[in-house]
Request: fold
Amino acid sequence: MQENVLIQARAGHYAIGAFNVNSHDEIIALAQKAQEMNIPIIMMASMSCARFMGVKHFARFVRMLNDEYTVPIYSHLDHCTDPDLVMQCAEAGFDSVMFDGSPLSFEENARISAELAGKCHRLGVFIEGELGVIAGEEGPVKSKYSQFTDPDAAQRFVEVTGIDSLAVSIGNAHGFYKGEPKLQFELLSQIAGRCALPLVLHGGTGIPDADIRRAISMGIAKVNVGTELRKAYVNALYQYTRENEKGDVRPFIKALRAGVAGAASRYLENFTNPCL
Ligand code: 13P
Reply:
């Protein structure tokens, strides 16, 4: 990323959609959907996806799409607890990376985040940090319970680390919500008042449209979505194979791509239209 597009997003009261992917077809489906809607998009690799697809390959594949499509398409490493992998991805050409030190103490999280921020910035790579604990499971980071982000601690964390964006815990959770999620808007307003940088909402799957739009209007500049896309991909796979016993490869892949693009489009519409 040449410039931190999330700063523009926060200032303009919109968000950029960031989607967890695990395959080329999901990436292509999302790139095509972003192009159709004429909006930028972020392709996120979890730690295991980065290792599965290959760190260099992921970065280069996403970069190559920028020759083909006119909308900006970015690569991002999501929820990485391993500083070495953060640097491997930054060196391989990822546009941005996340160091997730949320299971650590404030001091340890801040120390490692600051160190990585310095190194990433020298490479022109943006870095996301996290403070507070988001309930649910995302790769190696698991927690049964949320620990909401403390606004004063968040302000200190941003000041001492020099990170470019901050993931917040405000009632959001990874995976499917049990019941209706209850975002803490008063808390978000306090965090946004103390932290001018772009804020990131994880656990996008299942958050009602109106809540997503409200959060964006208050400072959320990147929204992460994973579970719903994985479900759409697998559902499309089963449906196609059920209905087409002797199906061919390309129609099968087309069905998978359509499933993923369909699941993403509802979110993308909210991110770009924060019309409160
Ligand atoms: P969901 O899987 O709940 O959409 O969350 C994805 C996420 O926040 C990835 O960081």
